[in-house]
């Protein structure tokens, strides 16, 4: 009888593309902090560490926001050394929900300008 190795605390669970649900994505993006994270990831081409985001929340709250985004399938997280890297799952989201991410990001940009935040 063989046993699979126990998952490491550094193994992060991500939904498979076919398991990403629209309502989970919309819920994840409905929070202003999570939307800010996605906006920052959408601008860059590279992955960013959690510490590169200037969020006005505690570390535990920040960790919660990243977990919600990851579990909804919006971002992919992995460890590189001691850093937890974050990347937007843009291609997968675009394949599943064509135009959704672009429309949400454009709307968020317009709102930021309208409210004097962008």
From TrEMBL:
InterPro entries: ArsR-like_HTH, HTH_ArsR_DNA-bd_dom, HTH_MetalResp_TranReg, WH-like_DNA-bd_sf, WH_DNA-bd_sf. The keyword Ribonucleoprotein does not apply. SMART domains: HTH_ARSR. Keywords: DNA-binding, Transcription, Transcription regulation. The keyword Membrane does not apply. Residues 14-108 form the HTH arsR-type domain. This is Helix-turn-helix domain-containing protein. It comes from Streptomyces cylindrosporus. The lineage of its organism: Bacteria, Bacillati, Actinomycetota, Actinomycetes, Kitasatosporales.
């Amino acid at each position: 009888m063989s046993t699979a190795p126990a998952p490491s605390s550094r193994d992060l669970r991500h939904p498979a593309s076919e398991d990403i649900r629209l309502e989970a994505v919309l819920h994840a993006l409905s929070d202003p902090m999570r939307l800010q994270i996605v906006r920052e990831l959408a601008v860059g081409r590279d992955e960013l560490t959690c510490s590169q985001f200037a969020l006005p929340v505690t570390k535990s709250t920040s960790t919660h926001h990243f977990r919600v985004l990851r579990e909804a399938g919006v971002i992919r997280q992995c460890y590189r050394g001691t850093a937890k890297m974050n990347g937007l799952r843009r291609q997968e989201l675009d394949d599943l929900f064509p135009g959704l991410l672009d429309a949400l990001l454009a709307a968020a940009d317009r709102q930021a300008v309208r409210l004097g935040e962008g």
